[in-house]
Amino acid sequence: MTLIAVDRLSKHYSGVAALQGVSLQVAAGEFLALVGPSGSGKSTLMNLLGLLDAPTSGTYLLAGEDVSRLSPARRAAVRNRRIGFVFQGFHLLPRLTARQNVELPLIYAGIGFRARSQRADQLLERFGLRDRASHLPAELSGGQQQRVAIARALALEPPLILADEPTGNLDSATGAGVLAEFRRLHRDHGLTVILVTHDRDIAAGADRRVTLSDGRIVADESTVELRRAA
Ligand SMILES: Nc1ncnc2c1ncn2[C@@H]1O[C@H](COP(=O)(O)OP(=O)(O)O)[C@@H](O)[C@H]1O
Ligand SMILES: [Mg+2]
């Protein structure tokens, strides 16, 4: 099944073309790495795919539904239900505990106090953060903050995870752990994962590698075939 179908998507920022006619299809269950030099439009594309922003032109079908012309409120509602977004800088709310951060999407979804604190505790447990539930982000290491951010992204069990350089600020061991967690979710739960990364090894671990340059897709390769050719 095609989860994402993007056709000639463009995004201009006050005259600057950050994205220029990108077309891309992603099947449900794919694990895709998005690579390219700094400024090539990776975050712009992720923000459009993640419904954090609307395109200047082009269409975006998510699970068959045209989501390219939704109102901001409707966009947020679709995002909350269908997409887990892991930001580069984690974007945890500094005054909320780890548990409260994980509960946020559940609050937006209208899930009651008892159910959502249970769900948050379950997720924190799964990510080895049970004893950190009541800590503020500033009291956690980078790797722990990242795991809280991933737990939050997964709170509503979205079919799609978008992660913008999720290992960018982490040491290599912690980064490898985060990647292993994405792979596990992909393998065990059929999650579709799109990951922006500068790390060649991480990109090589994905099933498919899409390269952006100057706002355009310049390569779209199956890493399985790349490995076979090597
Ligand atoms: N909010 C913005 N306002 C103006 N220009 C932007 C904005 N966001 C991104 N850009 C520009 O769009 C281009 C692509 O940026 P970005 O998508 O962040 O690239 P990447 O994530 O690959 O480094 C860059 O030239 C960047 O300066
Ligand atoms: Mg970026």
Number of helices: 8
Question: What is the SS-derived class?
Answer: alpha/beta
Largest sheet: 6 strands, mixed
Bound molecules: adenosine-5'-diphosphate, magnesium ion
Total domain units: 1
Q: What is the helical fraction, as a range of percent?
A: 25-40%
Distance between the termini: 30 Å
Beta-strand share of residues: 25-35%
Question: Quick one: overall form?
Answer: globular
- Low-confidence sequence ranges: none
The strand count comes to: 10
> What integer value in Å does the Rg equal?
17 Å
Oligomer: single chain
CATH superfamily: P-loop containing nucleotide triphosphate hydrolases
Describe this structure in words.
The protein has 230 residues and is α/β, with parallel strands linked by helices. The protein has one domain (2-229): Rossmann fold, CATH 3.40.50. The protein is built from 8 helices and 10 strands. It has helices spanning 42-49, 72-82, 98-108, 113-126, 142-154, 172-189, 200-205, 223-229; strands at 2-13, 16-27, 31-35, 57-62, 65-66, 83-86, 160-164, 192-196, 208-213, 216-222. The chain has a 6-stranded mixed sheet with strand order 6-7-8-3-9-10, with helices on both faces. A 4-stranded antiparallel sheet has the order 2-1-4-5, covered by helices on one side. Helix 6 (172-189) links the parallel strand 7 (160-164) and strand 8 (192-196). The longest helix has 18 residues, at 172-189. The chain starts with a strand and ends with a helix. Adenosine-5'-diphosphate binds at residues 13, 16, 18, 36, 38-44.
